[in-house]
């Protein structure tokens, strides 16, 4: 009889939607707690352990408030003026994620990372440290391809999205810079949509077109925060993303006429879609 569990474990896999900020396992927790002891910080509380989810399995925190939880994670790792701590937590989390999926025979891993500012790191330096951590992890995990998609949240502001797009074109491989040292890792952008006005949509359209003009980087649209608005959904689809994720809203549309219009649009675009990512 075939051992299905073993068969599934040994089967090569691809993971397209792994949130970097939501992942830490037991080994990462041990490293973190040892580091906190060394620098004289108190032990983690039960709630802090729940936040870090240190039970050996990465999880998706898409239903939680990103900035609150990520800020808490950074505070858990870092002292007030300790840039080495910043580097440590980025390396620990990154290596932990890669080890976890490598052990499950994942051959292609796509990390979704939101560039952010910590006490000692700018978004650009934060991203550079993530890239360095991936390069470090690949020294002992060479049979896995690892790519990074930058996360841009429309809900924050159009300017924040523009900053992420600027970072994408600095680090990613563009038509003008095919030899970017980080271009093999930086793969594209995930734009998390929310309800936007016409002016914001025009600016987003220009940004998406500019990315396409300058590069072949992947553009993923996340529809998790979009309300039931057929016109907005249709306008979003007109921007022709390469992939969609968190598309439950497309099956929740109560107006059947609008739903047919949206489905026809999806079929015309031949877009891969899925509950998480495709």
UniProtKB/TrEMBL annotation:
Q: What Gene3D superfamilies does UniProt report for this protein, alphabetically?
A: Metal-dependent hydrolases (3.20.20.140)
SUPFAM superfamilies assigned: Metallo-dependent hydrolases
InterPro entries membership? Metal_Hydrolase
Organism superkingdom: Eukaryota
Tell me the protein's name. Answer: Uncharacterized protein
């Amino acid at each position: 009889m075939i051992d299905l569990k073993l068969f599934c474990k040994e089967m090569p896999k691809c993971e397209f939607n792994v949130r970097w900020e939501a992942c830490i396992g037991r080994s990462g927790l041990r490293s973190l707690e040892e580091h906190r002891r060394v620098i004289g910080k108190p032990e983690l509380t039960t709630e802090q352990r729940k936040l870090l989810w240190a039970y050996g399995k990465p999880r998706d925190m898409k239903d939680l408030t990103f900035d609150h939880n990520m800020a808490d994670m950074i505070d858990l790792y870092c002292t007030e003026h300790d840039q080495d701590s910043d580097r440590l937590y980025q390396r620990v989390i990154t290596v932990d994620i890669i080890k976890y999926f490598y052990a499950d025979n994942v051959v292609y891993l796509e990390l979704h990372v939101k560039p952010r500012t910590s006490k000692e790191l700018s978004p650009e330096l934060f991203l550079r440290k993530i890239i360095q951590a991936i390069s470090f992890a690949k020294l002992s995990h060479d049979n896995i391809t690892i790519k990074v998609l930058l996360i841009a949240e429309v809900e924050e502001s159009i300017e924040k999205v523009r900053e992420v797009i600027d970072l994408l074109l600095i680090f990613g491989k563009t038509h003008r810079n095919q030899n970017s040292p980080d271009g093999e890792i930086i793969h594209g952008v995930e734009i998390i949509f929310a309800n936007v006005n016409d002016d914001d949509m025009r600016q987003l359209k220009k940004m998406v077109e500019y990315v396409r003009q300058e590069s072949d980087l992947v553009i993923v649209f996340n529809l998790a925060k979009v309300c039931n608005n057929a016109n907005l959904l249709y306008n979003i689809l007109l921007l022709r993303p390469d992939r969609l994720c968190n598309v439950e809203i497309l099956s929740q549309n109560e107006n059947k006429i609008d739903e047919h219009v949206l489905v026809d649009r999806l079929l015309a675009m031949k877009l891969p879609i899925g509950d998480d990512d495709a």
